[in-house]
Design goal:
It is a single chain. The protein has about 425 residues and is of the alpha/beta class. The protein is built from twelve helices and 20 strands. It starts with a strand and ends with a strand.
């Protein structure tokens, strides 16, 4: 499938963003561990959340989490605690090549019974649940924060609790802090006990109702559109976001302030979702340097936006991009060249553009590599191009299923 996208001349739209999948997925695991019968409210309707909902509801022997990396990490830890149950957890071909040995080794150290069914260190896994002892554990801090969050989420259910020491550099800390904050919302006793150590007491989760905020990651694409829009009276209103959000990608407010986007909150009551208004104030930096170590999922959006604005950049903290749904650094370089931009990378963690251009491909189509964020981030580029083609656009269902509907409502022509 291919979409041909033509952007509108002006933007004036109120968007009901999808619920945060980061919060939804954590809330679902905590909900299951608490034994509650009442699901959290405003759950995300994306693929990544749906696979967790179905696995928890149906409890099948074989659980196929498809391309959902969060679901693979969180469900692996959860299933390891299910005393007396046996499950196989698998996914797409790409998922079978995404390493999971650091999490499996950590769970085995805590007493888990997990076997690899294929290549050592990779899914699929056979998991025989049991009561885990817990105790002290060391894991590298520079691996996916989802490994760390998966361990923390089961901490209150371990007989001796969990003392988790993170070695080396720590990446994506906001996601770890989000996990700890949500655990405490459900009655857990979990916090940083030292600069590199988190302690989780053996205190069961409380059952409670819970409302999920909308997704700041999804907001980033609308920020990109406002940054790329050419009319000063263009305005986008995003519903269901909070000032002071615990979501790591809420840093998008700051990053896009450097690219000319002004953010205004209708209200600023703590913990209460409100409407956020975006406008372009025309004040854009001549060059952007930023370390994405705490918010790597925003990188694709900012890369595309900077190219379209003609803003040279140097971005760091991108090491995890190589083990996402695709090698995102390689994918960005390949697709940018189709549009006439020559990007460079170094140290497996940096990407930069010094303004170098090349001849763009005629009638280029952006490949998405089974990666939702490639489609989501490149589509707004149509505002600066005559039109843009996106291959396999259905990948957006992984995190933002109504994205194309929302673009049409905003005035985009989206033709199959």
């Amino acid at each position: 499938m291919q979409y041909n996208i033509t952007a509108p001349e002006s933007l004036n739209m109120t968007v009901q963003l999808p619920a945060s999948k980061s919060i939804s997925n954590r809330a679902l695991i905590i909900h299951a561990l608490s034994g509650s019968d009442v699901l959290p409210e405003n759950l995300s309707d994306c693929d990544d959340t749906e696979v967790i909902v179905n696995a928890l509801k149906d409890n099948p022997y074989e659980i196929n989490i498809k391309a959902a990396g969060t679901a693979m990490r969180f469900m692996t830890a959860y299933l390891a605690t299910r005393n007396g149950e046996e499950h196989v957890i698998t996914g797409t071909e790409r998922m079978k090549h995404r390493p999971i040995h650091i999490l499996v080794d950590a769970l085995r150290h805590l007493g888990a019974d997990i076997d690899y069914m294929g290549e050592e260190g990779y899914p699929p896994l056979r998991i025989r649940g049991r009561q885990l002892e817990g105790g002290q554990l060391e894991v590298p801090g520079n691996v996916s924060s989802q490994f760390i969050s998966a361990l923390l989420l089961i901490g209150p259910c371990l007989r001796d609790g969990l003392t988790l020491r993170l070695t080396g550099d720590l990446i994506s800390r906001p996601y770890i802090d989000l996990t700890l904050w949500m655990m405490c919302e459900f009655g857990a006793n979990a916090d940083w006990s030292a600069f590199d150590t988190i302690t989780v007491a053996s205190t069961p989760y409380a059952q409670r109702s819970y409302f999920i905020e909308n997704d700041w990651s999804a907001a980033s694409y609308w920020y990109e559109m406002i940054a790329l829009s050419k009319k000063e009276d263009n305005e986008i209103r995003l519903e269901g976001l909070m000032d002071g959000s615990k979501q790591g990608d809420s840093s998008v407010r700051y990053i896009f302030s450097l690219l000319g986007v002004k953010t205004t909150f209708k209200t600023t009551r703590e913990g209460v979702p409100t409407t956020v208004t975006l406008r372009n104030n025309g004040r854009c930096v001549p060059r952007l340097e930023y370390d994405f170590i705490n918010s790597p999922d925003l990188a694709q959006t900012i890369v595309v936006c900077c190219m379209m604005l003609g803003v040279p950049f140097h971005f760091r903290g991108l090491s995890t991009l190589k083990i996402k749904e695709t090698d995102r650094i390689k994918a960005l370089k390949t697709e940018a060249r189709k549009l006439g931009f020559v990007l460079h990378d170094k140290n497996d963690s940096e990407l930069y553009w010094d303004g170098e251009r090349c001849e763009p491909q005629v009638d280029a189509a952006i490949d998405t590599y089974e990666d939702h964020r490639m489609a989501l981030a490149f589509a707004p580029a149509a505002l600066r191009l005559n039109h843009l083609c996106i291959n396999n656009p259905q990948v957006v269902s992984k995190s933002y299923p109504k994205y194309w509907e929302h673009l049409k409502a905003a005035g985009y022509e989206v033709e199959r």
